[in-house]
Design a protein that fits this description.
It comes from Brassica napus (Rape). Keywords: Transferase. The chain is of the alpha/beta class and 302 residues long. The protein is built from 15 helices and nine strands. The chain has helices at residues 17-24, 47-59, 77-88, 103-106, 109-112, 116-120, 149-152, 180-193, 203-208, 210-220, 227-231, 234-241, 244-249, 251-254, 281-295; strands spanning 28-30, 36-40, 43-46, 67-71, 138-141, 158-163, 198-202, 257-258, 261-262. Strands 5-4-6-7 form a four-stranded parallel sheet, sandwiched between helices. The chain has a three-stranded antiparallel sheet with strand order 1-2-3. A two-stranded antiparallel ribbon has the order 8-9. It is globular and about 60 Å long. The protein starts with 16 loop residues before the first helix and ends in a 7-residue tail after the last helix.
Amino acid sequence: MDPKGAPSILRNDKISEETNKLISSLLSRTDSQGQKLCQYQGCWYYYNTLQGVLNFQSGFQPQDTDIILASYPKSGTTWLKALTVALMERPKNNSYSSDDEHPLLYDNPHGIVPCLEMDVYHESSSPNLAKFSAPRRLFSTHMPLHAMEEAHKHSACKIVGILESLFESFCNGTIYYGPFWEHLLSYWRATLEEPKHVLFMRYEELKAEPRHQIKRLAEFLGCPFTKQEEESGVVDKILDLCSLRNLSSLEVNKTGSRNDVDHKDYFRKGEVGDSKNYLTPEMEYKIDMIIQEKLQGSGLKF
């Protein structure tokens, strides 16, 4: 892939001289697309993304009311963002009809919930956060939890982590935001130690029992559904609004782009186990064995 034609997060054109010096001291690799990765604090980043991580670590001041949605790339991020936005918008949007001024009807979920290292802190350690002031700031990240440790340990902010059983090429861990198992274990361990501040969710469970899981998410975020809301069908209305079928059909998600990625490309099939259509049984078995070995003793199982 031509670096100039790659999405901005994959390039190395927005890094400072100081970050350049740091990168020269780090372990580096080239991925299957020819893009350069470096390992920082045990996690692999593209150079521009690393700049955003460093800016975040030096400048982010969390508020106790903040909500951070954490996910590994392509692990249900878009759906989690849409569901959380719909939950938090309930006091203002109760009918969920096509006539509503609901933010999901006129902006992509990634535009409503910006990524800390890719959007908010991509170019500066002191961005203007004034537009995120009301009433609870909502952000996302792909960083493992230990990358946010300094900010997290001084705040009561809520962190929601979601996991999908991915079967892509991560056998040696040298992939974007990898190793995958270290990423998910950081949030799994935190939810065991701090269940009031970190919620661990599985994409497969969200697909299998969406009503139960969205109620669980609402409880964690401090905005549980009232009996009246449940009886009037608000839960089902939110699930319908946030379904991948509905979101992908909205005009705002058929056009436009973010970080040089077309909005329509954020919507996959969303099917559990779809990897079986792309990997041989031998490849799938090998990755299953690697994950089983890496998660041994943690209590986390697929």
